[in-house]
Known about the structure:
By secondary structure, the chain is mainly alpha-helical. The protein has a domain at 274-471. It has 19 helices and 2 strands. The chain has helices spanning 7-22, 27-54, 77-100, 109-125, 129-147, 153-184, 189-197, 204-221, 230-237, 240-263, 275-297, 301-320, 325-353, 371-386, 392-403, 408-435, 454-471, 473-487, 491-496, and strands at 58-61, 72-75. Strands 1-2 form a two-stranded antiparallel ribbon. Helix 13 (325-353) crosses helix 18 (473-487). The longest helix has 32 residues, at 153-184.
Amino acid sequence: MSHWIIAPVLLPAIFGALIVLAMRNDLLLQRVFGVAGTVLLNGVTLALLWAAASNPPEAYFLGDWPAPFGIVLVLDRLAAILLVLTSVLALIVQLYAIGSGWDARGRHFHALLQFQLMGLCGAFLTGDAFNLFVFFEVLLIASYGLMIHSGGRTRLRAGVQYVAFNLVGSTLFLFALATIYSVTGTLNMADLAVKVAMLPEGDAALLRVGAVLLLLVFAIKGALVPLHFWLPGTYAEAPGPVAALFAVMTKVGAYAVIRCYTLIFPPSVSATGTMFADLLLPAALVTLGIGALGVLGSRRLLRMVAFAAIASMGTLFIAIAQFTPAGITAALYYLLHSTLATALMFLVADLVAARRANDDLSTAQPPIAQAGVIAALFFAAAIALSGMPPLSGFLGKLLILDASQGMAGLVWTIVLVTSLVTILGLSRAGSLLFWKATTLPPAPHEAKPPAHALTFVAAFGLLGLLVLLTLLAGPVTDFLADTAAGLFDPVPYVAANRLAVSG
């Protein structure tokens, strides 16, 4: 299976380059090859997940250079799960973009999407901290192009803010890597896991500095307070399908925290101990609170969904901050749920915006075309985002509450109160959009809705995945529990890199 490990990085790179070089002036060919590339990527990632489920971690060494000297990609259960999530979401977003015509409103949408997938897949597969930085930069470049797709002053201004903030994160990332390398002499993750565990006490202070800088970088990517400022404006101004794809992009930050702080800096390491859990948990609780208040107070639909995404990241980091098998299991389940639910709500918001002159929530507006089916989608997405039964958000929050140990009383209180606040905010938005709108006469110049059924196929596809995640909660949780247990046993991961645990 080793040669297939590079395929999730190589396939989008090839398809993206072909689309740019040979199909830049033919939208139909871009659509055909773009969808074909994403479908092929889905097949590869599903095969990799099947292989990872029954085999220990496996490494692929580019150029056959051994670790820690060469570039290495490592496939394990965690990487495989996120590869499948990314490829499935990308296909749904691509179909929606084609159906709604978003891909025709600017140049190179399908090529940029492929390069975005290259960066995402590379970040999940890399076994080297420096190459994690490289794939983060690939993500930044491609996501900036997608963010400003179809142009406009407001979107361009939000895009510049997004790039500026992430360039600060990239600079911090380099400082963190340089600091860690100066102490350990390596950036290979498996090698770091060995050397950090045996680090002399005299080097512990400098290592902690590097590890905290690294945590700041991942907090920026994961939109943790107080480093979340880039997200509301970016997601609210991005094209609807792009914002839906970005729902998985914040999860790269969460993935990096899970990977680095269970493999390299676990609580059992004396040099760092539990300091990262102590830093993460309060930040996660505040993030959840600010996200919920943003949902309640937003005057625009897309901005409301952006704050819901922040709240979901806060909830996710509450589980991650436990740094226990039970906490990581809950985090992984909620990660799957929140990615699908947030993406669904962004697509619903785009369906509404396409049928109205704006996405204003400050006053009721005239009814929109196809209001019944869109209202049903909004209702389902709101249930999922707020964590109400019967969908998977309720199960995910129960898992997180059950796994909470430190500050359990505070965690329970904040999670339950913010869930209520989120419900109120989403209920207010739904009332203004679909209920009070029926008392107003239709707008004289109502925006013509997209006629293509692909938009609804994509939205209902995401809803179907949420229902499936709910119905299969038992076996999915069992699989994720095995995945989490493997994260706290670094020996197979280190062995895949052909490194002796003894150093």
